[in-house]
Known about the structure:
single chain, four-stranded mixed β-sheet
Amino acid sequence: MQLSFSKGISSLFLVAVGLSWVLVGCSGDAESDAQSVDAAGVITGKVVFEGKAPKMRPLPVDADPACAALHKTEPLLTDFLILGEGQTMGNVFIQVKNPPKGDYPVPAESVEITQEGCQYNPHVFAVRAGQTMRILNPDGIRHNVHFMPKVNKEFNRAMAQNKMEITYVPKEAEAMFEIKCDVHSWMKAYCSIMDHPFYQVTGSDGTFSIPDLPPGEYEIEAWHEVLGTKTGKVTVKSGEDVTIDFTFARPKR
């Protein structure tokens, strides 16, 4: 009886020791795995215009009385250069040219483009391949939506006065292309179709912020519809922010 009891104690001791080794091993593996996952960083920056800015001229909205009626008190100005305080630049498309590889789900929410006041808004934007675009006509007048991509299927649809919404879903990633209205020649916008989420369009304050980038070296591109593109390289370290700024100027003749 005593011998059996001792054997039982010995067995329990061996089991306990074994479990302690397993727990220590699991804990060490979990800690090692946690340490091996580097925290993501953020790329931030600002875009500014250098030199004397060109004067924005009124657009020829008088060509359509319906559009002219919407701008009786304030003229509709050319919008290719949007400047804020300190000549910060809006409508500059910033993207990571060599994004980290990964499976990035397409957002379920749609991107809206309006034609309010006989002008596209936003003027510069991007959507993901496979994401729905909703084109709205709050003006209640006749418009035309003409997407002119080179990779995706061309899209050209008239919107009558009572046609308030149409949709478009691009399938493939594609660089910036023009959107125009065949009824109103001054109405233009620019769209890029992306296969990753690492991009942003600057507001009038010229700033941008691209989060969730794992450590690594990245090439950043700033695109403007008239002034072209500029690129720069940054190194993102674990859990840190890195800054890169861009300056545009009028081409020298």
